[in-house]
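Key idea: predict the complex, not the pieces.
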Amino acid sequence: MAESIIFHFRPGKSSLHRLDCRFKLLLMVLLTVSIFSATYRGLFLISLCVLSGVFTSRLIHRGFLRDFRGFLLILSLIFLSRTLTEGLIFGLSGSWRFLLVILLGMVLSATTDPADIHGAVYWYLKRLPFIKAGDIGTRVSLAITLIPLILDQTREVTEAQKSRFIEGQRNPVFRILAQTLPLLVSTLYRSREITLALESRCYDENTPPHLSRPASGQWLLFLSTAAISISGILV
Amino acid sequence: MKKNPPLISTVISALFAALITAGAYIAIPIGPVPLVMQNFFVILAGVLLGPGLGLSAILLYLFLGAVGLPVFAGGSGGLIHLIGPTGGYLLAYIPAVLLIGYISQKGGKRPVTDLLALTAGSLLVYAIGVPWLKVSTGMDWGKAFLLGMVPFLIGDALKIAAAGILARFLHPVMRDILPSSTEQVKSERSGKTK
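Result:
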């Protein structure tokens, strides 16, 4: 299933794992904008950049392609619909751009600890007036931590429902309820556990996260990727 | 000194943003086309969390998508999607969740008003999403309705029915979870004044 390879942080020591999260978030915004605005030559450059990120982060592991099947279905639908309406070239480029965004998201989530995302979001938002940077940073990192847990829980509920022969149930509303009610009750009660866990660690949103100064190598990686991203639109 | 929002609100809004994201990957096979549950969790956020907390969950979800994380339908993400042809549907979640939360709260969270709120919110998403689709793609009204609304109506009706029933079950759960933190905040504040 596609969800098992997405949003899961995989600890490692690659250059992307070590890259400052502030750089990663900025690059993420830049690259996703360029992917959809780039010319074909620019798209080639950006593709090289994204694919090198995929291999550097060691995202491709055993069973990756099997797990990627869900996305292949979506990509083939995009390919078919765009090919039928706009032609083969647009079909290919449309589905390729889509694939790059998915891979980029996977690289970010696989190489970034959610706690670092909290620090980066705090750093970007702390200068803005009327914005509680610490609170928003916590929400972002919590959401990113919770997504894979919810997806895992969904899979468990699906398996449990299959074992009870949910496919035999013809009422569609009942099928939605059978899938979502156990998921929601357990995740809502989990929110209380998370709150208690945060309180027991003396959580305070106003405590600034520790952010170290990025090394020169990280600046180099950031600037070169940003240059590729911008040139992707201009070339 | 700034007052901290109740910690449970922070956690609950993060949880619903995560649920909405996960909804993009949850497809329930009903008939030939599976139902993707993303907008189901959006309308549920409105009816369960109310306008304030529901809005913070939606804004958080859109923020995650704007950064580029693959949280939108089909695993896409990026700022460009918010201004693209389907951006209207995504941005419409903001007023929709406010409307659902407002009607549900004003109606005392009764089943009938909850259903009314869910229907109004779902229609509001189309009221913004379809004209946006028409303008951004240049297609005529008929085609915009045919592509951007008609295929999803049956699925949405099922989701509204399911969300209405779920809300009945989950309102007590929410009351069980949220008051504890409110009381706790009150006690914290009274502790500070002492």
